Amino acid sequence: TVEEHSPMSYIEVKASRAIFGDTEFAIRLPNAVHGIFTVAAIYFTIGLLYNWTAGFSAGLLLALNPYAMGLSREGRMYNEWLLFTILAILVGVTAVRRGRAIPDNQVTWHWIVLGLMLMMTHAATPHAQPTILGVALWLLLVSLHDLVRRPKMGLRLIEGSLMAGLTYLFS
After folding, report:
1. DSSP helix/strand/coil, 83
2. Helix 151-169 / helix 78-101 crossing angle, nearest 10 deg
3. CB count, 10 Å around CB of 17?
4. Which of 8, 28, 99, 137 has the most beta carbons within 10 angstroms of its beta carbon?
5. Contact assessment for residue 114 and residue 91, using Cβ atoms and an 8 Å cutoff
6. How many CB atoms lie within 10 A of CB 123?
7. Where are the alpha helices (DSSP H) in 24-77?
């Protein structure tokens, strides 16, 4: 059988129970924290991609969404998965933008952080492979687009994507 909860979820709940005791609050707290950080992550991601008004609106819609509020009260991994997926998108977009803006011989640290975000997404749930595959496909398409128009930049993005992939695989 496939385990639906990741080891990370158990570690977080164990730490919360060690601090707050064996209570329902302690079991639900990690997911509530993930829910709060997910609202902030949506705000920053949409704000950087489009504008801050759209980011605020997206964060507000998520914060007021009854389904999202319900998931924040459960002791399951869905908020964790959503948080690290959004962070992977945010870091991936930042890495691509920085990769396009820096000199040819430099690779930014954003690629390593992207690999770590993909690892955290995978650690959130064993079912995260489609999410990780989606990010990898997006990076491939962006890289191929740049390869045609600006070969050096496209190669730099492929190099960064490989660095993120290796970080993910070996973390």
Report:
1. helix
2. 150
3. 16
4. 99
5. yes
6. 19
7. 24-49, 52-64, 66-73
Q: Which residue has the tokens 């909860």?
A: 5
Q: 135 is written with which tokens?
A: 């990010």
Count how many Cα atoms sit within 13 Å of the Cα of residue 10 in the half-sphere of its side chain.
7
Residue 141 and residue 112 in contact, taking contact as beta carbons nearer than 8 Å? no
Rounded-to-integer distance, Cα 21 and Cα 131, Å: 34
One pLDDT digit (tens) per residue for the chain, 171 residues: 455 566 777 888 899 999 999 999 998 899 899 999 999 999 999 998 889 999 999 999 999 999 888 888 877 777 888 888 888 888 888 877 776 666 655 556 777 777 777 777 776 666 677 777 888 888 888 888 878 887 877 777 787 888 887 777 776
Q: Is 131 exposed, middle or buried (0-12, 13-18, 19+ CB in 10 A)?
A: buried
pTM for this prediction: 0.77
